[in-house]
């Protein structure tokens, strides 16, 4: 063996490229998770932690499950299985997932000889783990999915559509589309579809487009789309289709995709040109699904309280508020100040309300949260009671200005963008109208400069700071359809 051969470094595997190549092959064969009809087995989850996989990991595990005929959504590492007394069978090949962790700080001496933390060495680290499906493991209890009747499936789909508050009209003969200019969804009559999965697959796809409106998630693949066939149009269609898959899997609705042949070539082209695109698309799709599921949960909670108002005492009301705050945090809505650090390729922000570090990869657009054992309280963080009191007052302001059914959202301070008129303020918040029936509450101390009531502005967040600029309305006439 030559010295050159001996010194040849081991080639590092490119996880994202491998996942992208696999998805492209499945697209070409027509067997990607969002191309095949299937009975919902659920979103991939880890049974040892009780948490679902999200974004690119979820799509990758769904695809692997389809390719290897696994009908069990449970995935875990070898060690996690062993800790439960289960055994991965010898010779089984796992699937890889990615995760972001905060690297431990290293210490060095300053010029005075004092030991100090080396901040440049404290950075988010990308790790790849191998997980195995429950079908590859001995000793694990059999999977017992919840059996849903056809009535429950229809009810689940109807609730998501109704509780979204979207304007939906069944006024088309054979077309289905979302029209941003009127912020409305247009569908054929239900009777025009061969079955319930066909209808809800289409309806949830269009509802996913609806979440991208500038008054909601302000998704650039929707707001910057001009015509059928352009790059953003295909990318937005991919996000909508993935979101409808996530929603169907979460609520047990069988997935039956409508016509997608027109987009397959564009999807393949976009994925081949950028190995990060499938991860960005899956991340945005997870965000859209989470947004709609949060609306569904909020409405269900409100209905439960209205059904028995006399039985709800002050303590239970406080519990409801606490539960809502926790759910908002789980949905990624940041309601407190946060300490942030920026590096060349990532930003890391400690969130005191969740005890985690939110890591954002600038190149891929990917977000990951990592628990930390301890971290300093962020300067300027306000008390829980004070924050809730101000937010409750913000809701009242919105209801007085927009009607009693108005929804008030907390601002996504990581990367959210909001446009509209400032309609009021409270001790800690300014309230901005997003649509005729919704508003967003911004924390005052995060905004620069501070807008006045009556101003029409754009609030663009980055690293928990909101930049306020004068709002200039853009007019675009287009439709997102299938």
Structural class: alpha+beta
DSSP helix fraction: 25-40%
Shape: globular
Let me know the average pLDDT: 75
Note the gap between the termini: 59 Å
Q: What radius of gyration results from the CA coordinates?
A: 24 Å
Number of helices: 12
Largest sheet: 7 strands, mixed
Strand content: 15-25%
Placed side by side, the strands forming the largest sheet appear as 17-20-19-18-22-23-21
Give a count of the beta strands, DSSP E runs of length 2 or more.
24
Number of individual domains:
3
Uncertain runs are 1-9, 108-122, 324-344, 350-355, 372-381
Can you describe what's shown?
- By secondary structure, the chain is of the alpha+beta class.
- It folds into three domains: 43-105 and 115-138, no CATH class; 150-290, no CATH class; 308-470, no CATH class.
- 36% of the residues lie in helices and 23% in strands.
- It contains twelve helices and 24 strands.
Break the fold down into its secondary structure elements and pairings.
Elements: H1 3-7, H2 15-29, E1 45-46, E2 51-52, H3 55-67, E3 75-76, H4 78-83, E4 87-88, E5 95-102, E6 106-109, E7 115-118, E8 124-133, E9 137-138, H5 150-164, E10 167-169, E11 177-179, E12 184-186, H6 196-211, H7 220-223, H8 231-251, H9 261-273, H10 277-307, H11 314-330, E13 339-342, E14 346-351, E15 356-361, E16 367-371, H12 384-402, E17 407-410, E18 417-425, E19 429-435, E20 438-443, E21 447-448, E22 456-462, E23 465-470, E24 480-481
Parallel strand pairs: 10-12, 17-20, 21-23
Antiparallel strand pairs: 1-2, 3-8, 4-9, 5-8, 6-7, 11-12, 11-24, 13-14, 14-15, 15-16, 18-19, 18-22, 19-20, 22-23
Helix pairs in contact: 2-9, 3-10, 5-6, 5-10, 6-8, 8-9, 8-10
